Amino acid sequence: MQPVNLFNLASQQSDWLAVRQSAIAGNIANVNTPGYGTAEIEPFEKVLDKRRVAMSATQEGHFAGGISKAAYAVRNEDGKNSVLPSENTVVLENELMKAGEVRRTFELNTAIVKAFHRMMMQTVKG
C-alpha cells in the first residue's frame, strides 16, 4: 500500500472542482436555451475509485507516453425529466446551490492544504 500524498489528492480534487464549476456555469448560461439538458459531473469519489496505481518515471525516457489527468465523465440529461415548457432541464436554483457547494468544497480543500503545509514547515524548522 502506498502512502497518501495529500497535496496530490488536493490537486486532483481542485481539478475536479474546476471541471464541475465549468459545467455548472454552462448550465446557468443555457438556462433559457430550449431543449438544453443539464450537464452533470460524476462524483469525486467515483473518480478516485476508478483511479489506478500508475508507475512514475524518474527520467523522461523511461516510459513511452506520459501520465494523463483523470478523465471526468460529463453526462447530459435529456429533456425527459423536464418540467419546463421549453424542454429545458436546468433549474437555476439547483445550479446556484451546486455552485455554492463547489465554492465551500474548494475553500475546505485550500484550508486543509494550508494547514498541512504549515505543519510540514514547522517540522522542517524544528
UniProtKB/TrEMBL annotation:
The keyword Oxidoreductase does not apply. Keywords: Cell projection, Cilium, Flagellum. It is found in: Bacterial flagellum basal body. InterPro entries: Flag_bb_rod_N. Residues 18-36 form the Flagellar basal body rod protein N-terminal domain. It holds the Pfam family Flg_bb_rod. GO terms for cellular component: bacterial-type flagellum basal body. This is Flagellar basal body rod protein FlgB. It comes from Mesorhizobium zhangyense.
